[in-house]
Design brief:
With 385 residues, this protein is of the alpha+beta class. It folds into 2 domains: 1-79; 85-134 and 148-379, Alpha-Beta Complex (Aminoglycoside 3'-phosphotransferase, Chain: A, domain 2), CATH 3.90.1200.10. 45% of the residues lie in helices and 13% in strands. It has helices at 12-32, 81-84, 101-118, 152-157, 172-186, 201-218, 224-238, 278-290, 293-297, 305-320, 327-344, 354-379; strands at residues 42-51, 54-62, 67-75, 132-136, 141-145, 195-196, 246-247, 257-259, 265-267, 274-276. The strands form 3 sheets. It has a 5-stranded antiparallel beta sheet with strand order 1-2-3-5-4, sandwiched between helices. A hairpin with a 5-residue loop joins strand 8 and strand 9 (265-267). The radius of gyration is 22 Å and the shape is globular. 37% of the residues are buried.
C-alpha cells in the first residue's frame, strides 16, 4: 500500500479530517496496537495521496520504540474518469444513481468488518486481514490497518516482459489464494440487507446490445452488432433463466489485492451493497488483469498469453476447487466485462492539434487490443493453459 506520492492539493477540509484522524489515533492507538506505550504514543503523517474520489493518508503510530501504521480513507465528490467519459449515459452494470459519499464510506467500513469476522478463522498463511479501526462519519471517512505489501498489480507489473534485467519468479500460489479468498467472501452473509442485481439472464444478455449500440457510435473498425448477437446467444445458452446470486465485492481487481512474498492475499475496498451472479466478480478480476494499461497500449507485448492464461487458471482453480469450472458462463461474462471496459475508454475528442493526434493514436492501439481480446473470447476457452 504505497502512499508515498504527493497529493494534488491540501484544503481546509483535508486538514480537518487529517487532524481528527490523528487525534482519534492518539486516543485509541494503544487499544489498536497493545504493544505501544500509551504514555509515549505519538502520531504523525507519513504519506498522503489525493485521488479523484478519495483522500488516502498514512499515519505512523509510535512510542519511540514500537510503531505501527494505519490508513485514513476519506471519500469525496470529485471528477473521475467516468465523469469525463463521452457519456454520462453509457451502459453500465450498475444503477445510474450512485450512493452519497457518506453511505459509500459507511458501507465500505461495514464490508471491511464483514471480512474481518468472516476470515477470522481462515488460514493466516493464505489470507491477511486489514482491520477497520474507526469511523469518522462527519467526514465520510474511516481508519483501517495499513497493509505493508505491494498490490497484485504491482507484483504483476514487475514480471513484465518489457522490463530489463531479471524478473521475479511467478507466484502461482497468490493467484490460487485470490480465487479461494473470493469463494469464501461470496459465501458470507452481509450484516446489512443487500439488493439483488442483474439476476435475470435475458436482461443481462440485453446489455450486450446496449454496449454494442454505444460503441458503434464512438468506435470504428468493429462489427459490434455481430459481436453482441454472438455474446448474447452465448449468455442465454450458458445461463439458467434465473442466475445464482452471491454477495458481490464490487471492485475485485488486482489493484485492491495485496500479495506477500509467500503468496498471502489481503483484500480491501469491499462494497457489500448487491447480491450478484458470482461470474461478475470472477470476470471483473480476470478481464481487469488482462487489460492493464501497459498491456493494452503495447498490444499484448507486456505479458504473454501463456503467462496470463496460467494466472487465470490458477485463480479459477482456487475459486472452484474440485468443482467443474463453468467455462461458457465465464466466457459470456468476460465478454460483458470487456465491453463494459471498452465503453469506459470513450472520451470526448480533443480539439485539433498534437493532443488530438496522441489521443487518436492511443485510441487506435486500445481499440485494436480490445478487438483481439474479443476474438479470443469468442473463439477460445476460458481458464485453460
Amino acid at each position: 500500500m504505497d502512499l508515498g506520492e504527493g497529493c494534488t492539493g491540501v484544503d481546509s477540509g483535508t486538514e480537518a479530517v487529517v487532524s481528527s484522524a490523528r487525534q482519534l489515533a492518539i486516543e485509541r492507538g494503544a487499544e489498536w496496537f497493545p504493544g505501544i506505550d500509551p504514555a509515549r504514543l505519538s502520531v504523525m503523517v507519513s504519506g498522503r495521496r489525493e485521488r479523484p474520489r478519495c483522500l488516502l493518508v498514512k499515519l505512523r503510530v509510535h512510542d519511540g520504540r514500537n510503531e505501527a501504521a494505519i490508513v485514513l480513507k476519506a471519500r469525496r465528490t470529485g471528477s473521475s474518469r467516468e465523469g469525463r467519459s463521452v457519456a454520462q449515459v453509457r451502459p453500465t452494470l450498475l444503477p445510474a444513481q450512485p450512493l452519497p459519499q457518506a453511505d459509500m464510506a459507511r458501507r465500505e467500513f461495514v464490508g471491511l468488518d464483514l471480512i474481518r469476522a468472516g476470515f477470522a478463522d481462515s488460514d493466516a498463511t493464505r489470507f491477511g486481514i486489514a482491520r477497520p479501526l474507526a469511523e469518522l462519519r462527519q467526514y465520510s471517512a474511516f481508519l483501517m490497518d495499513y497493509i505493508d505489501q505491494p498490490t497484485m498489480r504491482n507484483r504483476l507489473m514487475a514480471r513484465s516482459r518489457l522490463l530489463p534485467g531479471r524478473r521475479p519468479p511467478d507466484q502461482r500460489a497468490a493467484w490460487t489464494n485470490a480465487g479461494a479468498w473470493l469463494r469464501i467472501y461470496h459465501r458470507l452473509r452481509p450484516a446489512e440487507p443487500a439488493q439483488p442485481r442483474n439476476a435475470d439472464a435475458a436482461a443481462v444478455a440485453g446489455l450486450f446490445d446496449q454496449y454494442a449500440d454505444f460503441l458503434a457510435r464512438h468506435t470504428r473498425g468493429t462489427d459490434f452488432t455481430k459481436l453482441a448477437q454472438t455474446a448474447s446467444q452465448l449468455m442465454i445458452a450458458a445461463m439458467p433463466a434465473k442466475l445464482p446470486l452471491v454477495l458481490g465485492h464490487g471492485d475485485f481487481v488486482v489493484r485492491n489485492l495485496f500479495e506477500s512474498p509467500t503468496g498471502q492475499i489481503s483484500v480491501i475496498d469491499p462494497m457489500p451493497r448487491w447480491l450478484v451472479p458470482p461470474y461478475e466478480d470472477l470476470a471483473r478480476f480476470v478481464v481487469g488483469m488482462r487489460l492493464l494499461g501497459l498491456q493494452v497500449f503495447s498490444r499484448g507485448l507486456t505479458f504473454g498469453q501463456r503467462q496470463l492464461d496460467a494466472y487465470e487458471s490458477a485463480f479459477l482453480a482456487g475459486y472452484f476447487g474440485s468443482d467443474e469450472v463453468p467455462r461458457e458462463q465465464l466466457r459470456a461474462y468476460q465478454l460483458l466485462m470487456l465491453l463494459d471496459k471498452w465503453s469506459a475508454t470513450v472520451r470526448p475528442v480533443p480539439p485539433a492539434g498534437p493532443r488530438r493526434l496522441v489521443d487518436t493514436g492511443r485510441r487506435r492501439l486500445a481499440d485494436g487490443y480490445f478487438r483481439t481480446e474479443a476474438r479470443r473470447l469468442l473463439d477460445g476457452t476460458v481458464g485453460s493453459e
